[in-house]
Amino acid sequence: MSEHTLYLLKALFLGLIEGFTEFIPVSSTAHLLLVGDWIGFSSGASKVFEVVIQLGSILAVMWVFRARLARLIGGTFSGERSELMFTRNLIIAFLPAAVVGALAIKYIKALFHHPGVFVVTLIVGGLIMLWVERKPHLSKRGGVADTSAADAHATARTLETITWKQALAVGCAQCLAMVPGTSRSGATIIGGMLAGIQRSTATEFSFYLAMPTMLAASAYDLLRHGATLTGLEATAIAVGFVAAFASALVVVRAVLRFVAGHTYRVFAWYRIALGLVVWAWLAFGA
C-alpha cells in the first residue's frame, strides 16, 4: 500500500469519526485531533482538514431537515410570523460566535496544538452536563426516565416558542465551543437547557444553528488557507467530507430518537472517561 493511499484511508476514517461525533456532545474536534495524532495523520499547521470536513456533516443535517428548511425559507420570505421569529433567533444565536471567531481565530487555532486543553474541557464539560441533569427525573414513560429537572421547568418546548433572549444565551454558549474539546453541540444544547429550552428542542435548535456557523467557519478557512493546500491534502478533505456526510446521516436521526427518551448523562460520563484517558496518555505515554 502506497503512502498516499494510506493517508487517504486515514482521512476516510477521520471523516467517519467526524460524522459520528459532530452532533453528540462529546467534541468532534477533540476526537479528530486526538485520533489523528494517534494514527499519525498530519493535516498541517492550519488544521483546515478538521474544519472543512464538518461541511459533510452539515449537508447531512440539511438533507434530514430539508422539508423544515424549505418551510423556514418560504415562510420567512412570505412574512409568516413564526418563521420570521425562528430566522431572527438563528441570526441572534449565530452572531456572538461570528464576532468572537473573527477577532480571535488565531488564538483559538493555537489551542488545537495543546492536547492538555482537551483534558480540562472534556472533564469540565462532562461535569457541567451531569450538573444540569443532576436532579431525579420527574416522569417516566414505559419505565424509561425521560424528563429531567431541567426539562420539567422548560419554558420553550418548540422551536417557535424560543425567545430572543434564549437564542442569545445559546449563541453565547456556542462561543465557549471554540475552545477545542468543549463540543459545539454540547455547549449549545446545555446552554439552551439552562436558558429554559426543553432538551429535544434545544437539540434541534443546535442542529439548525450548526448550519450557518459551520458553513461560515469552513468558508473562512478555505478562503484563508485553500491556496496553500497540496493536491493530496485537498483530496483528503474531499474523502473526509464524503465520509462525514455518510456517517452523520445515520447519527442525526439516531440522536433525535435518543433525546426523546434519555438524558445526556451517558455522554457526560464518556467525556470524563476520555478526558482521564488523555490525561494518562500525556502523563505516562506521550
UniProtKB/TrEMBL annotation:
It catalyses: di-trans,octa-cis-undecaprenyl diphosphate + H2O = di-trans,octa-cis-undecaprenyl phosphate + phosphate + H(+). One of its GO terms (molecular function) is undecaprenyl-diphosphatase activity. Its main location: membrane. InterPro entries: UppP (IPR003824). Its EC number is 3.6.1.27. Catalyzes the dephosphorylation of undecaprenyl diphosphate (UPP). Confers resistance to bacitracin. Bacitracin is thought to be involved in the inhibition of peptidoglycan synthesis by sequestering undecaprenyl diphosphate, thereby reducing the pool of lipid carrier available. This is Undecaprenyl-diphosphatase. It comes from Candidimonas nitroreducens.
